[in-house]
Amino acid sequence: MRLRTLLLALVLSLMQAGKASAADRLGRYPVDPAQVSVAGISSGAFMANQLHIAHSADIMGAGLVAGGLYGCAVLRADDSGITALASLATGACMRAPARLLPAATYAARIRRFAALGWIDPVETLGRSRLYAFTGRSDTVVHPETVRRAVAVYGLLGLPTAATSFSDGALAAGHGWVTQSYGMACGDTRPPYINDCDYDQAQQVLQTLYGPLEAAATQPSGRLIAFDQTEFAPGGDAAGHGLWHTGQLYLPAACEAAGANCRLHMLMHGCQQSAQVMGDRFYRNIGINEWADTNRIVVLYPQARSVSVADFRRPRPTDLFQVNPEGCWNWWGYAYDSRYLFKDGVQVRALWEMVQRVTGRANR
After folding, report:
1. Residue of 138, 227, 310, 336 marked catalytic
2. Which of 37, 42, 128, 137 is catalytic?
3. Tens digit of pLDDT for each residue in 207-241?
4. Is 138 labeled as catalytic in the residue annotation?
5. Residue 42: active-site member
6. Are 205 and 212 in contact, with CB atoms under 8 Å apart?
7. What ranges do the domains of the chain cover?
8. Of 52, 142, 174, 268, which residue is the catalytic one?
9. Does the global pTM surpass 0.85?
10. Is 120 a catalytic residue?
């Protein structure tokens, strides 16, 4: 029986390797580098916030759905770096808002990191656009966390006029909200996509890019699988919380070399990656329909779970560095104490994907 189990595991491993090698190398597309935006849900919102603040000179705006307070899990910060705790992430940041720090403290840290050159100058944030959302029935990430994220942007110079904030207007659970797909609006359970008769995809893209053409009923573009392993240090995607394959949605209008298109990167939340849900998230949240008629290329990078078995060099502390639910890195797992900054593993990987698509990559 043990031999049979080992053989089955080997076969599954080879199948996964085959899937990874079948993905194409991420290519360049006719995208205006000045029209790049990011968004995410839950852990994806925290990551979208981190990526935006790290590269605010080149990212025009961010969408934060049920998450996104920068450095929320940081215990200490000084000129040598930061100390972050998973217990802060699951406590103050998610369910104990009384333990959150004042918005001014988070803003001051961002200014300090910018002065050290770890992120872009904060002045560039004032030119951004922001969409934020928290549901009234969200029991996973407390609404105050999102409110404080919005407040931090304001303290860093983002005008109120450039912000669209749905603060508990809908009795939505913890999830991406759609017009007609998913669980009941107030639910908080897989796939964390909620039918609330509200087109969040439209609201995000409209806030970031302005008035939109009507969404496509049947998108005419195509999804392209691309290899994410090349963006991980040493090709070790698994040990850094990156799934081997990401997805890119390419509208038909953006196929031609001379097209003038935009780029939106959207991050899923915990338990929503392709590792867990296949294509269910990126096919059903409504973004592709709006992207299709508005010349928006969409990057759907994919995170993955990290267990102690995924670390190439076993260490006694590995158990404290895991990511069992496939979240994006917003508390420093996998030994990444630089996760908030430009040189953080996932922030760097995601930015290199953006640079590749826009044609500004060094490789």
Report:
1. 138
2. 42
3. 999 999 999 999 999 999 999 999 999 999 999 99
4. yes
5. yes
6. yes
7. 29-358
8. 174
9. yes
10. no
